[in-house]
């Protein structure tokens, strides 16, 4: 029996270029920090000067040893560390492993490492390492995480392009709502792009112009008139979802997952759809039993895509959401692609808990004056109901309502 | 070896010739073992040690052997390395195979 009532988030893990862990991340959000630079991780440039936000050295998980971590990709290592933070906060070690699940958002997650392995062995393919046969699969992340944390209930990936992270939250919520598991962790996985994916996204006009290499701090500017596309950012987030009160020793929840929606445009292309976005917003609100007036804060998709940002603002206006505060987390983190929806759900929950909204970087000349932009400095805010939005290439629109537990 | 070299280079009498010796191969094996099983970094490795007893699972074993094969530039199927029981036997087998392949 599907029962969506009383689903809450009891644990969070976040890893972004501006901070590993909730404490560092939250501080960076309110200070509107950034780490945008010409990227230098091996495999990112091919005669290019792509700007992005790369993780500093990662604090590794304590759950696996050096042997297992040696063949774990960057995406896998970041997933393990991020999951550990959420798992520890929620206190899941005592749970029945058969009743715990994991949904990982994202596909084609380890492209950079695959390209590097292929390049290393192009002239001697017979010596390709056997571990490639395991690690090329996105589901290697499921293997790593379930072995490290003893998860036995369910584990799989879900792909929804840049909506993958939010789709993972939604599918994890559905897994608890349907009774398949009692606790389900949603993880938006780090999309480790190689120079090939960056070149492709650049060629299609989705990424900010390369001439930002001389002023990387200015490159990422969601909702600003001078925006020219998204700027990539390495990121990952994990959310522990369960039914409120199901475990007596569970920590106080961050918020309720009060409603959600997944709407498709029936469109293979990357272009956004006003109809699809408004349909997702309205359905999520309806399922949450809310009206637009109830929403205090919107965490938008806001990638700085020229068409995407204007369409999203039009959707907010069409849905009567111009009274709500809006900021753009990607102005600080960059676009985590498959991770973005989970990172932004985490950012929304952390802002709700702190009663404070982070400013939007580089929003000097907004594309539209109707939304109540948060920019310049953080603002205090009592957020009872929040709406987080994600969109993905191929006509994917997702919306998620987060509500204070006593609202 | 390219055809131009055939017959111009003496065939080594054994694996102790111009090819990697068994001892050199053993050293390569120990380096690969320590890379793939990092917890053994400080442990002495002996010819009588077996990969099983050292804690290698089947994936670890395949990784170790492939690492050594690449170092030796010895292109043989992994299945042909399954006979030897310990590190010394594996070193002997690989150095002998390399010598035969080079003839």
TrEMBL record, chain A:
GO terms for biological process: fatty acid biosynthetic process. Keywords: Transferase. GO terms for molecular function: 3-oxoacyl-[acyl-carrier-protein] synthase activity. The keyword Ion transport does not apply. It holds the Pfam family ketoacyl-synt. Residues 4-404 form the Ketosynthase family 3 (KS3) domain. SUPFAM superfamilies: Thiolase-like. InterPro entries: Beta-ketoacyl_synthase, Ketoacyl_synth_C, Ketoacyl_synth_N, PKS_Beta-ketoAc_synthase_dom, Thiolase-like. One of its GO terms (cellular component) is cytosol. Gene3D superfamilies: 3.40.47.10. Belongs to the thiolase-like superfamily. Beta-ketoacyl-ACP synthases family. This is Putative Polyketide biosynthesis malonyl-ACP decarboxylase PksF. It comes from Streptomyces aurantiacus JA 4570.
């Amino acid at each position: 029996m599907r029962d969506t009532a009383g689903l809450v988030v009891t644990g969070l893990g976040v890893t972004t270029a501006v901070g590993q862990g909730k404490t560092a991340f939250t501080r960076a959000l309110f200070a509107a920090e950034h780490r945008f630079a010409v990227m230098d991780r091996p495999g990112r440039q091919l005669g290019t000067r792509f700007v992005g936000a790369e993780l500093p050295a990662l604090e590794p998980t304590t759950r696996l040893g050096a042997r297992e971590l040696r063949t774990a990709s960057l995406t896998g290592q970041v997933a393990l560390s991020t999951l550990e933070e959420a798992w520890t906060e929620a206190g899941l070690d005592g749970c029945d492993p058969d009743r715990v699940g994991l949904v990982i958002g994202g596909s084609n997650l380890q492209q950079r490492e695959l390209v590097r392995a292929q390049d290393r062995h192009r002239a001697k393919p017979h010596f390709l390492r056997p571990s490639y046969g395991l690690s090329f699969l996105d589901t290697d992340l499921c293997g790593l995480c379930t072995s490290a944390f003893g998860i036995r209930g369910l584990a799989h990936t879900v792909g929804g392009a840049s909506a993958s992270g939010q789709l993972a939250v939604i599918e994890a919520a559905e897994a608890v709502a349907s009774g398949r598991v009692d606790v389900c962790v949603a993880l938006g996985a780090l999309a480790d792009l190689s120079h090939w994916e960056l070149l492709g996204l650049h060629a299609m006009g989705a990424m900010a112009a390369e001439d930002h290499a001389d002023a990387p701090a200015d490159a990422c500017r969601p909702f600003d008139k001078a925006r020219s596309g998204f700027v990539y950012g390495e990121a990952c987030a994990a959310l522990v979802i369960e039914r409120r009160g199901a475990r007596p020793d569970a920590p106080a929840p961050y918020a309720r997952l009060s409603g959600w929606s997944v709407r498709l445009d029936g469109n293979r292309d990357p272009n956004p759809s006003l109809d699809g976005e408004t349909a997702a917003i309205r359905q999520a609100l309806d399922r949450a039993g809310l009206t637009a007036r109830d929403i205090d804060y919107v965490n938008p998709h806001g990638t700085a895509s020229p068409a995407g940002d204007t369409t999203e603002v039009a959707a907010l206006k069409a849905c009567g959401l111009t009274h709500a505060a809006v900021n753009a987390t990607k102005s600080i983190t960059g676009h985590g692609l498959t991770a973005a929806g989970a990172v932004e759900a985490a950012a929304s929950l952390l802002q709700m808990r702190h009663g404070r909204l982070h400013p939007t970087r580089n929003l000097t000349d907004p594309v539209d004056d109707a939304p109540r932009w948060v920019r310049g400095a953080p603002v205090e805010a009592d957020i009872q109901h929040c709406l987080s939005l994600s969109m993905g290439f191929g006509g994917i629109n997702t919306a998620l309502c987060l509500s204070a537990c006593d609202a | 070896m390219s055809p131009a070299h055939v017959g111009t280079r003496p065939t080594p009498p054994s694996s102790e010739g111009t090819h990697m010796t068994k001892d050199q191969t053993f050293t390569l094996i120990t380096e690969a073992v320590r890379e793939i099983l990092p917890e053994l970094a400080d442990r002495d490795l002996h010819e009588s040690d077996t990969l099983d007893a050292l804690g290698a699972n089947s994936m670890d074993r395949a990784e170790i052997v492939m690492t050594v094969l690449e170092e030796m530039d010895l292109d043989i199927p992994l299945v042909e390395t399954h006979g030897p029981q310990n590190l010394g036997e594996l070193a002997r087998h690989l150095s002998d195979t390399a010598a035969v392949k080079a003839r």
